[in-house]
């Protein structure tokens, strides 16, 4: 592959559709949370959709991903069912994990989605194990671990990069730098460049504009192809921004304190990855406003359908935890 | 029925299960050289894909077991000493133990972790823990503590075929002990205690390395006309509560011998089960013989002072039967 390859018109429209679905589902969850309808907290991915979409476009159900506590976008982009995910966040029996995992832990093992994870950084070692399995299977599968700038400071990250490099595992370390480690600016707690940590383990590292889905698609595509060819792991740092709070209820915890300025949030809203992608589509003639609005309408129907499915679901089975013990 | 050392029985189980199922892979620190002996010959027989040395990265090794299992393998991770469970704890406590529940049953985690446990060798506190109490409390992890060659082989083979995370803990300093092992393929069901000697005066439950001094004590007590049941639980999760309660129902007296610390430990759990469900049988208080709640010291005399021995076990039984 060359460095300047790009998604086709059709691929770009599909990327937009995927991003719009993630956005639509999450805006609904934001509203449901505000209305007090959800049992637990939600950590929303709004503003980061280009990363999940651009990476997962290169994956099939046979490939593996591990995700973060902010994992709805990865789940949907990897092909997870919006209905089953919504029902899970609602804590319903029809949820993908039957209401046992919830928002922070959506997983669809049959689709290679080894789970969002409530422990920051925990997905990396799981992905490293899946990548070893993929290498032993020898059939071109890869594992992608999504993690944030906050997780980058867990010691296990260096352990995993060392092992992945020394064994040339088919793996992509995809660091989504959304600039905040919970409520702390990452600039305040980060020494050096994150990519240099990968380079120290002899893993090639690149940085990309995480709000430009074409750029993410290109960087991830190169890295995943490299992994499929048996050339080992790569590291990609995608610079993006978390528009919503660390979690939706953060105002309750902050009690009026601020950890970032509204001007900063507004500036990033102008760089919204959906807006950027719409511009790219129109600029290159891949579609016009009517094509885009047709996609938006179809996505809105999917969101309504998933939300209605979740709301109409049945309460979780209280006997299931004991039934799952050692069976 | 051949005589095999405990460590050879473990090695035999690994050979047999790796021959049987190509999805069984072994990894960990120094497994290729097999310095402890239980991994001897595996690397030569099965090659580097299935038997591989790793860096000293326990936090990652335990997490990788989850990924390997989720992707269809049956990983066997050798952690050397049970203290290193603590180093790898996130993936044990938050991932292995939880993900079957958290995924609503989607995931199976056929993981076996091997580590040796216990004191008695002047290894000091960071290499002498009996780390099973913390594992017992996780929920979702099976805990196996074999004490002889046949049980070790049968339990390890069952663990490798089990679809749940199993910690197979080898009693430190007992690897050279000889024992008879059945000729034919031998699998021991997980969750069955063994009644090693029979008597009606008291029940002595001994865990892991403590089985040996408990049996020696029982022999000497028998010479004095005091016959006791000695029970080896063999697995702590699941615990064979029925066997324990049946014995206490017969004897009415319970002594539990454990070299793990007392607080929230195996001895305490067994005591709680019997107190709750076997209270009408009891003729006296339940006695725990343990090191208390301190860490194992280095000096041989200080370590021996803490570890339960024949003297302390004898005294506990005699006090219960009114001869103390």
Largest interface: A-B, 47 and 39 residues
Biggest β-sheet of chain B: count, sense, barrel?
7 strands, mixed
Categorize the overall geometry of chain A.
globular
* Top-tier CATH class of chain A: Alpha Beta
Distance between the termini of chain B: 42 Å
* Strand composition percent of chain A: 5-15%
SSE pattern of chain B, N- to C-terminal: EHEHEHEHHHEHEHEEEEHEEHEHEHH
Nearest-angstrom radius of gyration of chain B?
A: 19 Å
- Domains of chain A, number: 1
**Architecture of chain A in CATH?**
3-Layer(aba) Sandwich
The helix content of chain A is 40-55%
Strand content bin of chain B: 15-25%
CATH architecture of the largest domain in chain B: 3-Layer(aba) Sandwich
Number of helices of chain B: 13
Mean pLDDT of chain A: 97
Decide which structural class fits the backbone of chain A: alpha/beta
Q: CATH superfamily assignment of the largest domain in chain B?
A: Thiamin diphosphate (ThDP)-binding fold, Pyr/PP domains
Q: Helical region count of chain A?
A: 13
């Amino acid at each position: 592959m060359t460095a300047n390859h790009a998604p086709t018109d059709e691929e770009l429209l599909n990327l937009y559709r995927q991003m719009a679905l993630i956005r639509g589902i999450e805006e609904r969850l934001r509203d449901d949370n505000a209305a007090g309808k959800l049992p637990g907290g939600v950590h929303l991915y709004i503003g980061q959709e280009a990363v999940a979409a651009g990476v997962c476009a290169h994956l099939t159900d046979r490939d593996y991903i591990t995700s973060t506590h902010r994992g709805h976008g990865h789940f949907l982009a990897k092909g997870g069912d919006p209905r089953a995910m919504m029902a899970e966040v609602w804590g319903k029996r029809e949820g993908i994990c039957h209401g046992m995992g919830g928002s922070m832990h959506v997983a669809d093992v049959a689709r290679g989605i080894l789970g969002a994870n409530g422990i920051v950084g925990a997905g990396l070692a799981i992905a490293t194990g899946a990548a070893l399995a993929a290498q032993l299977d020898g059939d071109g599968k890869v594992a992608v671990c999504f993690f944030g700038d906050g997780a980058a400071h867990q010691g296990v990250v260096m352990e995993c990069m060392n092992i992945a490099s020394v064994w040339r595992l088919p793996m992509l370390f995809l660091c989504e730098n959304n600039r905040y480690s919970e409520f702390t600016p990452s600039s305040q707690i980060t020494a050096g460049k994150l990519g240099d940590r990968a380079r120290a383990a002899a893993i090639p590292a690149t940085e990309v504009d995480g709000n430009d889905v074409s750029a993410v698609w290109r960087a991830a595509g190169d890295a995943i192809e490299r992994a499929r060819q048996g050339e080992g792991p790569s590291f990609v740092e995608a610079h993006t921004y978390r528009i919503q709070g660390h979690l939706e209820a953060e105002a309750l915890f902050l009690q009026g304190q601020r950890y970032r300025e509204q001007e900063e949030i507004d500036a990033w809203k102008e760089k919204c990855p959906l807006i950027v992608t719409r511009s790219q589509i129109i600029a290159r003639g891949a579609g016009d406003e009517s094509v885009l609005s047709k996609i938006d309408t179809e996505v809105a129907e999917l969101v309504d359908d998933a939300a209605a499915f979740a709301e109409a679901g049945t309460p979780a089975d209280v006997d299931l935890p004991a039934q799952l013990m050692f069976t | 029925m051949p005589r095999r050392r405990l460590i050879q029985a473990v090695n035999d189980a690994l050979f047999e299960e790796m021959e049987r199922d190509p999805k069984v892979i072994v990894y960990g620190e120094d497994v290729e050289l097999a310095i402890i002996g239980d991994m001897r010959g595996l690397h030569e027989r099965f090659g580097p894909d299935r038997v591989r040395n790793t860096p000293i990265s326990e936090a990652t090794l335990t997490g990788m077991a989850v990924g390997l299992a989720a992707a269809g393998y049956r990983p066997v991770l050798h952690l050397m000493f049970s203290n290193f469970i603590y180093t790898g704890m996130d993936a044990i406590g938050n991932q292995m133990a939880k993900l079957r529940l958290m995924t609503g049953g989607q995931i199976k985690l056929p993981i076996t972790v091997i580590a040796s446990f216990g004191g008695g060798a002047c290894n000091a506190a960071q290499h002498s823990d009996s780390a099973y109490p913390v594992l017992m409390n996780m929920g979702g992890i099976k805990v196996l503590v074999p004490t002889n060659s046949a049980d070790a082989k049968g339990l390890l083979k069952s663990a490798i075929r089990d679809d749940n995370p199993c910690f197979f803990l080898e009693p430190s300093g007992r690897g050279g002990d000889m024992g008879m092992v059945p000729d034919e393929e031998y699998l021991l069901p997980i969750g069955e205690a063994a009644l090693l000697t029979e008597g009606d005066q008291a029940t002595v439950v001994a865990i892991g390395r403590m089985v040996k001094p408990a049996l020696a004590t029982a022999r000497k007590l028998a010479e004095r006309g005091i016959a006791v049941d000695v029970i080896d639980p063999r697995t702590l999760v699941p615990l064979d509560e029925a066997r324990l309660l049946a014995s206490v129902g017969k004897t009415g007296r319970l002594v539990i011998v454990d070299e793990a610390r007392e607080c929230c430990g195996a001895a305490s759990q067994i005591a709680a089960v019997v107190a709750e469900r076997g209270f009408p049988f009891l003729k006296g208080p339940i006695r725990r013989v343990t090191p208390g709640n301190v860490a194992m010291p280095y000096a041989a005399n200080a370590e021996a002072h803490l570890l339960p021995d024949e003297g302390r076990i004898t005294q506990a039984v005699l006090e219960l039967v009114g001869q103390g």
